[in-house]
Design brief:
Elements lengths: L9 H14 L9 E8 L8 H9 L10 E13 L2 E8 L5 E10 L6 E8 L5 H7 L4 E8 L2 E13 L2 E6 L2 E6 L4 E3 L12 E8 L3 E12 L1 E11 L5 E12 L5 E10 L24 E2 L6 E5 L2 E12 L3 E15 L1 E7 L20 E3 L2 E7 L13 E9 L4 E10 L7 E8 L3 E13 L4 E12 L5 E8 L6 E6 L3 E3 L4 E8 L3 E12 L1
Parallel strand pairs: 1-15, 13-23, 20-28
Antiparallel strand pairs: 1-2, 2-12, 3-11, 4-12, 5-11, 6-7, 6-10, 7-8, 8-9, 13-14, 14-19, 15-18, 16-17, 17-18, 20-22, 21-26, 22-25, 23-24, 26-27, 27-32, 28-31, 29-32, 30-31
Length: 511
């Protein structure tokens, strides 16, 4: 039997009384029910809830790899023994961590738990047959197209074979297809995971108690659907939370909260640890017409469902994160990055043969401001954003790309990469290179030609990295540019329909 330490009694009650004295109001008496807070470290890129459900169907019920956990809070009325006695607490999660259990008697603060055990030896066909070794059984086995009955003492149940001693000898019967009739349920086997507490209590009778514990096997992720309008300058967005519950318990009529952020936990090597992004605090934001209510909580974000829900075991379910947002502004961007986002070398790159000549298509991005005046302004948990556009020919939505977003606070920019443009082409050519190692000076000239084969004007951006060295200066350029950081400049242009735009610039490096 496994015994675990328990966090017991008065601190929670004392905290409640302190709060009541500070506000002048009596403490609110808890009501019976279940509350569930789910923490997630799921990576939206690789986490697929359906994979875990499929594993569960195949008999693999180990949830340690599920990237998240839950904190379960139960207020329940129980019959308390007087003096020293045992209290059974059933319907806990099968994957509970017993070391996290806390117990408070809300009727009598003097009640204490002096010992705890977690009973998890649940009924299963294999355990039942193991417990019946040496006892009377009846086995009906299909043999030669008929069922033959063997009644006697079960001697063994291993390697998919049953060995039974009957009045006419010992028989070895294949377990596959066999039906076994047993007597009563053997002692020690349970139908539900159970906490057993040894209680020291002065007052017998009905008591309201509250217990809290952590369980593995439960997590959540966010999914967003973005629909662009015909002008590609506005969009609608809906957001969903997908819950995965493999914790071994259902939480009926429960208060549900979700936490976004990296809450540190010390995990054993066998379980592994997840990670997420920690976010700065933000004021509470209640969304009208359904969805979760969001608020800052410590250094994380807490999303509370303002209604009760059922979180069923071995299931996934979707809940609206917030009501659909209609008609907020978006901006489409076509971005060339011929240098692939590289940065300056740690020492001067003097190799004449090294150049970043390239030809290709620009990446397509959609970006918007997560601001309240745009109908948004709610901190967005990390997740996958799928983008669609309406085809006016048949009024259907067509998928045009998807991307991942990190935890995004309010008032920040959300930028989604959709793919590459088809009808806009760019070509980057080096037209000159000069180097004087004595003077410690080199110059490089590039021509960038953007061709637009569409019938409409296209706005394009060209990112250029001065990768040869950190000390550089653009001496000549036929277009304005913006210095984005220590090694990157940005050119912007409107490319006419079925036309082109050419950028020429010369950069000088000294060292």
């Amino acid at each position: 039997m496994h015994f675990a330490p328990v966090v017991v009694p008065v601190m929670a009650l004392a905290t409640s009384l302190l709060h009541a004295s500070a506000t002048g109001a009596p403490p609110t008496k808890p009501v019976e029910g279940t509350a569930l807070t789910v923490y997630s470290s799921a990576d939206p890129r690789g986490f697929d809830p359906q994979r875990w459900i499929q594993q569960q169907r195949q008999g693999n019920d180990n949830p340690w790899g599920v990237p998240g956990y839950g904190v379960v809070k139960v207020v329940r009325r129980v019959t308390m023994p007087q003096g020293s006695g045992t209290l059974s607490f059933t319907d806990v999660a099968a994957w509970i961590d017993p070391t996290t259990v806390s117990f408070v008697d809300l009727e009598d603060a003097a009640t204490t738990v002096i010992e705890q055990s977690f009973q998890f030896d649940l009924v299963s066909p294999s355990k039942l047959t193991e417990r019946y070794i040496g006892r009377e059984v009846m086995i009906s086995s299909p043999i030669g197209g008929e069922f033959k009955v063997f009644q006697g003492t079960l001697l063994s149940a291993t390697q998919n074979q049953l060995v039974v001693q009957t009045g006419d000898g010992i028989h070895i019967v294949a377990a596959t297809g066999a039906q076994i009739t047993l007597g009563e349920l053997p002692g020690g086997l349970l139908t539900k995971p159970t906490l057993l507490w040894k209680i020291a209590n002065a007052t017998a009778g009905e008591h309201l108690i509250r217990t809290t514990y952590q369980t593995a096997g439960i997590t959540w992720r966010a999914d967003y659907n973005l629909v662009l309008d015909g002008s590609e300058s506005a969009a609608d967005m809906s957001a969903w939370v997908t819950l995965l519950n493999l914790s071994g318990a259902s939480y009926l009529n429960a208060d549900l909260k979700l936490v976004a952020g990296d809450v540190q936990r010390i995990e054993s090597n066998e379980r592994g640890a997840g990670s997420g992004g920690m976010q700065p605090p933000a004021p509470r934001m209640a969304m009208d017409n359904g969805g979760f209510e969001e608020k800052s909580f410590f250094e994380y974000h807490l999303y509370a469902l303002p209604r009760k829900t059922d979180v069923m075991q071995n299931a996934t379910q979707q809940i609206a994160l917030f009501p659909p947002v209609v008609g907020f502004k978006v901006k489409k961007e076509l971005v060339f990055d011929f240098t692939g986002g590289m940065s300056a070398f740690g020492e001067p790159m003097l190799d004449r043969a090294f150049q970043m000549a390239a030809k290709g298509n620009p990446s397509v991005f959609v970006q918007f401001e997560n601001k309240k005046n745009e109908g948004l302004g709610m901190p967005l948990p990390s997740g996958k954003v799928r983008v669609y556009k309406l085809d006016p020919a048949d009024e259907t939505l067509e998928f045009i790309g998807e991307d991942l977003i990190e935890h995004t606070p309010r008032n920040e920019t959300v930028r989604i990469k959709l793919g590459e443009a088809f009808d806009v082409v760019g070509e980057r050519t080096r037209t000159d290179f000069q180097i004087d190692t004595t003077a410690k000076r080199m110059s490089e000239t590039f021509r960038i030609e953007i061709r637009n084969q569409k019938a409409t004007v296209q706005s394009v951006q060209v990112l250029e990295c001065m990768f040869r060295w950190t000390n550089w200066k653009i001496e000549k350029a036929n277009a304005k540019f913006e210095k984005k950081n220590a090694s990157t400049v940005l050119f912007e242009a409107e490319v006419p329909p079925e036309g082109k735009k050419i950028f020429d610039y010369t950069v000088v490096y000294t060292w």
